[in-house]
Design brief:
7 strands; alpha+beta; two-stranded antiparallel sheet; 49% helix; 5-stranded antiparallel sheet
């Protein structure tokens, strides 16, 4: 993929994440992409479609990113080491990571991250059957979940999460600094094949280990959400070391 094609793919993803609407070559021409005319942009988009990074919705004339496009974004276009929440987001997260009460800590961080990310966030103590879930209502305000069947599948996944977690736990990275990401059909469990799951592990006081599961549409803001999860787990690890 050329540098220009990478930039085009990143722009299509950014536009689609923001608007949830198919992205047309005319829209990108108006944005001034590389000074190109619509026909030239359309040719590049067609090539990205042949490589299965874009999907052409003929009813609208625009294109949307595929799971493969989001995977390329996560693996090649995002600088993970540079990801960091905003100053206000860091303050909000740090404010709730200040308690040695493990249940309160897990509950507060799940609620806080669900609000900041507009995603479902589930935290648990891996050694205990103790889960906190937040964010389902806000997720259903997104246009991605207007279809009742999709909303039902996500709701069922969250409701049955305690039963599913044993299967999901094996996929949590042992890396305490970088979460693991499953996009769409990559997801190892059923019911969420149109969503993205971000899995992370972190240390807790008393030698315990916590898990964090963030669930949102594949159209999620990956830079923001990965940054939120990374920062939160880093702060939780620091707290565990200092208690």
């Amino acid at each position: 993929m050329t540098t220009r094609q990478e930039a085009l793919l990143a722009l299509v993803i950014e536009e689609y994440i923001t608007t949830a609407e198919p992205v047309s070559s005319k829209l990108l021409e108006k944005s001034g992409f590389c000074g190109l005319k619509s026909a030239s942009i359309r040719a590049e988009m067609s090539q990205l479609e042949r490589w299965e990074y874009l999907l052409h919705l003929h009813t609208s004339g625009g294109r949307i990113p595929t799971d493969r496009a989001y995977r390329y974004l996560v693996d090649n276009l995002i600088s993970w080491d540079e990801l960091e929440p905003s100053s206000q987001e860091r303050k909000t997260i740090s404010a709730v990571i200040n308690d040695s009460d493990i249940r309160k800590l897990n509950k507060n961080i799940a609620h806080t991250l669900s609000v900041l990310s507009d995603s479902i966030v589930i935290t648990s103590v891996i050694e205990r059957d103790d889960f906190f879930k937040f964010g389902l209502a806000s997720l259903f305000e997104m246009p991605d979940f207007r279809e009742l069947e999709r909303a039902f599948k996500v709701t069922s996944f969250v409701d049955e999460f305690e039963k599913i977690f044993d299967r999901l736990e094996r996929y949590i990275s042992e890396d305490m600094e970088n979460p693991r990401i499953f996009i769409g059909r990559e997801n190892p469990v059923g019911g969420v094949k149109n969503e993205t799951i971000i899995l992370a592990k972190y240390n807790l006081p008393d030698g315990l280990t916590g898990s964090m599961t963030m669930i949102g549409p594949t159209r999620m803001d990956y830079e923001k959400n990965i940054g939120l999860v990374k920062y939160a787990t880093e702060e939780l690890n620091k707290l565990a070391q200092n208690i």
